[in-house]
Specification:
Length: 485
């Protein structure tokens, strides 16, 4: 990877792959960037939450121009293939070149947003560039709630222009994004004993593409939790199956790729249950032909003696009905821009948590919208869905969208720069995914912001890959923009 061009960007990206940095584990990467800034002799500091700030003086002739903020997030989404043995808190990412792309062996690559961090590092160390004073601002825990951006204090940043380096299609300039909120529904119950003569079966859904719940939500990919519960509903209603526990998904901002449920069923009904599983696997393969190419719905024996207890029938039924009714996917497109999602929900996780005498089932969603009232409307739909099923529902981590500014000075400049550098127009769009620009803009009103990046496909999944050629174009646009500012 160190032989790829531009070499100064790729060498830094490679170094980032060697530092474990899943969301929530930011100390190592924060210390690394802090040491890096200080090794260059630049003003470098961290705030209380762990955000890193590095300031580089203006190049000759640019001293009287306003500072520019380069912003990227340090953390990455930890997702892996089911059969991949990997510890994101300890193991380095195994990246490799695959033709025109760089990928990782069975895990997310971390190009989101390692490429943004690497590009900023390259700018900081290059003494030949022309640029105003630069503030590199690296945030923590963007992927789990944008906590680093939320913790940014007023009056820390001096710049009036912010270049967010966290987008995933080269040639596109982003001037707006969706806001979001975390939805959590909790069922509480006391487990009941297993019926005598029953046997246990573990049903699993696997092999789905998954993906980014903002960028990929419009692709109509299968949701492993939804598929599992479609099968469970018939298993419970028609075959006397009982639900012991269920697990699915791993992150709010990833479309669930895997899910499983532990069931008991009367011994004489086991064969029929297995036939039902085969039926639904064939059905799902047909339904998602052309969208999913590796759907697996399987059932295998489980030791009945290892089943500690079952959900009461009313809890089981309420859960199944609520999951079945909960919206997932696109809720509304932007009327003025019909190819862009306005509002969506990702039914992201379901987890059984066993505690002493009391168990919980926690269902987690991420609701997004570029229109605050629409976000609240969909929140109310989800709230009603789970409250009618007897769950406690909470909403946390709400963050604002980023309202487009079509009169942006930096947008006008970058459109001109892109045309001159590449002989074609850049696309100017809003994005359904969340970006930190909305939160930063809340604390720094009047900040002129834009977001761009190289081409990254399938972020938030083990299929994540970054296009090599696009990295060179992304970096060329960045340094030309700095010179233009």
């Amino acid at each position: 990877m160190n032989t790829l061009q531009p070499q100064n960007v790729w060498k830094h990206f490679h170094s980032l792959t060697q530092i474990p940095r899943p969301s929530g584990c930011s100390k190592a990467i924060g210390d690394f960037l802090t040491h890096y800034g200080k090794s260059l002799g630049l003003e470098t500091f961290q705030d209380e939450i762990g955000n890193v700030f590095i300031r580089k003086p203006a190049s000759a002739g640019y001293e009287n121009h306003a500072p520019v903020v380069l912003q990227a997030h340090m953390d990455m989404v930890p997702q892996k293939d089911a059969d991949r043995v990997f510890d994101f808190e300890k193991d380095p990412i195994e990246a490799f070149v695959d033709g025109e792309w760089v990928r990782a062996k069975g895990t997310t690559l971390g190009a989101d947003d390692g490429m943004g961090v690497a590009a900023a590092m390259a700018v900081l160390e290059d003494k030949t560039l022309k640029h105003p004073a630069i503030e590199a601002f690296f945030t923590v825990d963007e992927e789990t709630g944008m906590y680093g951006a939320e913790a940014l204090q007023p009056n820390v940043l001096r710049g009036k222009t912010l270049l967010n380096l966290d987008c995933e299609t080269e040639g596109e300039l982003y001037i707006g994004c969706a806001g979001g909120v975390d939805d959590t529904a909790t069922f509480t119950y006391s487990p009941v004993p297993v019926s005598e003569g029953d046997v246990a079966v573990l049903i699993s859904v696997s092999g789905l593409h998954g993906g980014h719940s903002g960028c990929d939500i419009h692709l109509q990919r299968a949701n492993a939790i939804k598929l599992l519960f479609e099968c469970l509903k018939e298993a419970v209603s028609e075959y006397e199956a009982r639900l012991a526990c269920v697990q699915g998904g791993s992150l709010r901002n990833s479309i669930p790729r895997d899910a499983c449920a532990l069931l008991t069923v009367p011994k004489e009904g086991k064969d029929e249950l297995l036939e039902l599983v085969d039926f639904y696997e064939d059905l799902f393969i047909k339904e998602y032909d052309g969208v999913e190419d590796n759907i697996h719905l399987t059932a295998k024996d489980f030791d009945i003696n290892e089943v500690k207890g079952l959900m009461p029938e009313d809890t089981q039924d309420f859960l199944i009905h609520a999951i079945t009714a909960c919206p997932h996917g696109v809720y509304r497109m932007i009327p003025e821009i019909p190819d862009v999602v306005e509002t969506s929900n990702n039914l992201a996780m379901v987890q059984t948590i066993e505690e002493e005498n009391i168990n919980k089932i926690v269902v987690s969603c991420l609701t997004r919208s570029s229109v605050e009232s629409r976000k609240e409307e969909l929140q109310e739909v989800i709230d009603s869905c789970f409250r009618l099923a007897g769950a406690d529902v909470t909403f946390t981590g709400s963050y604002p969208g980023w309202k487009p500014n079509t009169n942006s000075r930096v947008l006008e400049l970058m459109q001109d720069v892109y045309q001159k550098e590449f002989g074609k127009e850049a696309r100017v769009i809003t994005i359904h995914a969340g970006l930190e620009c909305g939160i930063i803009g809340k604390n720094y009103p009047g900040m002129d912001m834009i977001s761009f990046g190289p081409t990254i496909v399938h972020p938030h999944s083990p299929s994540e890959a970054v296009n090599i050629e696009s990295v060179g174009k992304f970096y060329k646009l960045l340094i030309a923009t700095l010179a233009g500012l």
